[in-house]
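The aim of this short unit is practical: by the end, you should be able to scan a pair of folded records and say something sensible about each. We start with the first protein, listed as its amino acid sequence and then its structure tokens.
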Amino acid sequence: MTEYIEIRFGENFERRATGEKPLEEMFQSINPMFCLSQRIWRPQMDIYETRNSIIIQAEIAGVEKDDISIEVNSKAVKVSGVRGRTPPEESATYKLAEIQFGRFERVLYLPTLIDIERVRASFFNGFLEIKLAKFPIDSSQRIKLSYR
């Protein structure tokens, strides 16, 4: 059974100007309470290229399909959404908290222009896969001249 993921097309994506990390991101691994904050987390992703396409894979286990948003333009892809959290039982005390919950977002700038008319996305076993068709580099087109 094929399930469809909505893909939005746009022109502008924000690019983070500095390489600085927010304070709570630097201390996330030290104090589990920072993992429960409202900060945006970044899922792990792979990007690879074949002769005709660029493939992006994102590890977003626990995210519902309806909570994923994909925006594409000819130069970049933005994947965002939210992963809900099941609260632990009331008497539980965290000893380690590494799983990130809440809003997530990644903007990936592509190594080549893509054809936004030929984008596909699928979601299976916690992995999102986006296939982006590249524009042919070596293609030529014969132009018919008209007389005036």
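Turning to the second protein, read its sequence before its tokens, just as you did above.
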Amino acid sequence: MKAIWMLAVLAIAIFGPEWAHAQDDLSVLDALDMDDLVEVEPPPPAWQSIGSPIALGAFFFFVLWLGRLAVPFRVSKESLTLFYFPTGVKRGLALAITLYGIAFAFGAAEIAYQLHLHGSAEAYFANMSQGKLIAFTHAHLFGFTTSFLVIGIPFSMQFNHLWIYQWVFPIGLAAALTDVMSWWGIKYVSPNFEVISIVCGILFSLSYLYMLIGLLRVLLFPQVIWATDKDREERLSKKELDPTSHTGY
């Protein structure tokens, strides 16, 4: 028993000062503010987090205003009536428009999937590398441009007599451009750019859907006559004269 007590006293004599020094270090760490140990980025200023998304929204309207200034509306002499196009052209154009619509639907499904996977657009773009974002931008700008060209040009020429229809094509394309720009804002500036992305996504989706329905109606269902058809009165008169006619052409 005496030997055990001697060993205990010897251990205290040897390790006691180191134990006391360790306790002092822990007390010092407890007294420190953890914010002093971890560098936390300050929140972005209001002009950046709020002003930048507003500026991008203004850019969308600036693009439209610039187009209106450079190309004022006039009733064009150049028009087309898709019904008179060759059968192969009508079938191919209808199929191309439908496939682009399906592609848009898959794009919307991809957005929903990524938001569910990452929790938010901010987290999604935060995890995306700059190289991938560059490739993402490149692919979408090409995709948006070609899809709107394929559907926007025949739509605008089919309804060349309506000034309001001449806005559908450029609004959709300007919204697509602004949407792509907002992705960079979400990643590098502020998550508030997500609002611009949502609004522009709705705008270009609605404009594309409206043009898609309008063209497919002309190509596949010519018997349906809209009030916006420039030859509406003429076709209604022909249908009255020939009730067996299903199209009025």
